[in-house]
Specification:
This protein is of the alpha/beta class. Helix content is about 50%, strand content about 25%. The chain has a single domain, classed as 2-Layer Sandwich (Nucleotidyltransferase, domain 5). Strand 4, helix 2 and strand 5 form a beta-alpha-beta unit. Helix 1 packs across helix 2 and helix 3 packs across helix 5. The longest helix has 18 residues. The chain starts with a strand and ends with a helix.
């Protein structure tokens, strides 16, 4: 089963996916234009990947409460579910962007240029979700 993760942001949407043998890779960064165009672009990329399930990062506050960004991610997840017909789940993504930034900072320069932060953050979300399923 191909599982994808989405790091939803106001300006960009990062996508990561599982490949053969469960390898997780950055799959796309989509620049936000209008909600409709962004949903269509994400839906197209998920279809190209053959995704059967989507994990949307849910940016809860450090105290576990849901703020404005969490509400936006919830709305996006619901709309994505409706437009694609896929199973779409929310998953706590606290500190995923921080971890993605640290990973890129530690990587060689040639890798840093080729891996946009939003797609790497989606990888972090997907890796965390996979680990949570193993517990």
């Amino acid at each position: 089963m191909i599982i994808a993760a989405v790091d939803y942001g106001r300006r960009r949407i990062g996508i990561a996916a599982t490949g053969e043998h469960g390898v997780i890779f950055p799959a796309a960064v989509i620049e936000q234009r209008s909600r409709k165009l962004s949903l269509e672009a994400v839906g197209r990329r998920l279809a190209e990947l053959g995704a059967e399930r989507v994990i949307v990062g849910w940016p809860l506050n450090m105290d576990g409460s849901a703020g404005v960004q969490a509400a936006a991610a919830e709305k996006f997840a619901a709309e994505l579910r409706l437009t694609t017909g896929l199973t779409v789940d929310l998953f706590d993504e606290r500190l995923s962007s921080y971890e993605a930034r640290e990973r890129l900072r530690a990587a060689p320069a040639r890798i840093q240029r080729g891996k946009p932060l939003d797609a790497v953050a989606a990888c972090v979300i997907l890796e965390s979700w996979v680990q949570s399923q193993k517990r």
